[in-house]
Design goal:
Blueprint (H helix, E strand, L loop, with lengths): L4 E7 L13 E2 L2 E2 H10 L5 E5 L2 H10 L3 E3 L7 H16 L9 E5 L8 H16 L6 E7 L2 H12 L6 E5 L5 E5 L9 H7 L6 E3 L2 E4 L1 H8 L5 H6 L4 H5 L4 E6 L14 H8 L5
Parallel strand pairs: 1-4, 1-6, 4-5, 7-12
Antiparallel strand pairs: 2-3, 6-11, 7-10, 7-11, 8-9, 8-10
Helix pairs in contact: 3-7
C-alpha cells in the first residue's frame, strides 16, 4: 500500500535575516505563493503554518488552507509539529488516518523540482518497506562549483548562504553546518578539483515520521541547534536517525531566499520549475 504524505509549509513573518520575506514579490507572486505552487504541483495536500495575520490573509485570498501557530515557535519543525496537531484537532481524529508522514517544505524554497518530491516519496516507501532505521529523510545535492563559490562569498561577508551536511557510509547525517564542511573544501580546492570533494548542499526540506515530529516539539532546544541556528541538529543531537537522500547537482542555479539579495538569484531560476 502506498504511503500518503501531507505538505506543511512553515511561514513565519519575522525572519531574523529577512523580515517579511514570505510576502516579498518573486516574479509575479509572493515568495510564499511561489512555494505553495511548488507544493501543489505534486498533487500532495498542502497546508500553511503561520504566526502572522498578513500571511493568513494572503492564504484566504488565494484559497489556501492555513493554521495559526504560536509566534514563539523556535523554527519550522516546531511550527510543523504544532500545525499537525491543530489540523487533527480541526478535522477530527480521522484526519490522522489520511496521511502517513509529513513533508516540511520551507516557505522560502520555491525552486525544489517536482522530481525531488517524487524521489523522496520513493525513498520513504523503500526504507519503510524494508524496515530500515530512519526517523526523518532530507535531500542534499552535490554542490556544483558556482554554488560553492557563492556560498563562500556569503560567508566572507558574514552572511549565511546555505547549509552543508556530512554523513556516515549509510547516509545517516553526522552533522549539518552553515560553514562549508568537510574541512578542506576551501575556494582553491573547489576551483581545482571540486569533483573529488564529497560536499553536499542541504535543502531545508524534510519528510518526518509523525512520531518523530511529535517528539521534536517536546525536546528542549539543543546546544548545537542554538549554535548553528539549524533546527535539524536537535534531532541529530538527541540520537534520531536523519537519513540524507543524496542527489546529483541540479541542472540550474539552485538557491533559497535567505537574504534580500537572494530574490534576484531565485527569480532567474524560477522558469526551471514552472
Amino acid at each position: 500500500m502506498q504511503l500518503k504524505p501531507i505538505i506543511i509549509i512553515p511561514a513565519r513573518y519575522n525572519s531574523s535575516r529577512f523580515p517579511g520575506k514570505m510576502l516579498e514579490k518573486l516574479g509575479d507572486k509572493t515568495v510564499l505563493e511561489q512555494t505553495i505552487e511548488t507544493g501543489k504541483r505534486t498533487g500532495i495536500p498542502v497546508y500553511v503554518a503561520t504566526d502572522n495575520r498578513d500571511i493568513a490573509n494572503l492564504c484566504i485570498r488565494i484559497g489556501q488552507e492555513y493554521v495559526m501557530t504560536d509566534p514563539d515557535c523556535k523554527n519550522g519543525t516546531e511550527r510543523c509539529a504544532e500545525a499537525m496537531v491543530k489540523l487533527i484537532d480541526k478535522h477530527g481524529e480521522e484526519f490522522s488516518q489520511e496521511f502517513d508522514y509529513v513533508i516540511n517544505l520551507q516557505g522560502d524554497s520555491p525552486l525544489i523540482p517536482d522530481y525531488v518530491f517524487k524521489l523522496m516519496m520513493e525513498e520513504y516507501e523503500q526504507l519503510a518497506a524494508h524496515d530500515k532505521p530512519f526517523d526523518i529523510i532530507t535531500p542534499a545535492f552535490r554542490m556544483p562549483m558556482e554554488t560553492a563559490e557563492r556560498f563562500l562569498d556569503c560567508r566572507a561577508e558574514g552572511k549565511a548562504g546555505g547549509t552543508t551536511v556530512v554523513t556516515d557510509s549509510n547516509d545517516r547525517a553526522i552533522y549539518f553546518s552553515k560553514e562549508m564542511i568537510p574541512y578542506g573544501a576551501d575556494l582553491t580546492n573547489i576551483r581545482s578539483s571540486s569533483e573529488k570533494i564529497p560536499m553536499y548542499y542541504h535543502i531545508g526540506m524534510y519528510a518526518y515520521k509523525p512520531t518523530a515530529l511529535f517528539d521534536y516539539a517536546h525536546m528542549e532546544e539543543s546546544a548545537l541547534e542554538r549554535t548553528e541556528g539549524l533546527e535539524q541538529l536537535r534531532f541529530v543531537e538527541n540520537g534520531y536517525h536523519v537519513h540524507c537522500m543524496k542527489l546529483l547537482p541540479l541542472h540550474f542555479d539552485f538557491w533559497e531566499v535567505n537574504n534580500p539579495e537572494d530574490i534576484e538569484i531565485v527569480e532567474k531560476s524560477l522558469h526551471h520549475v514552472r
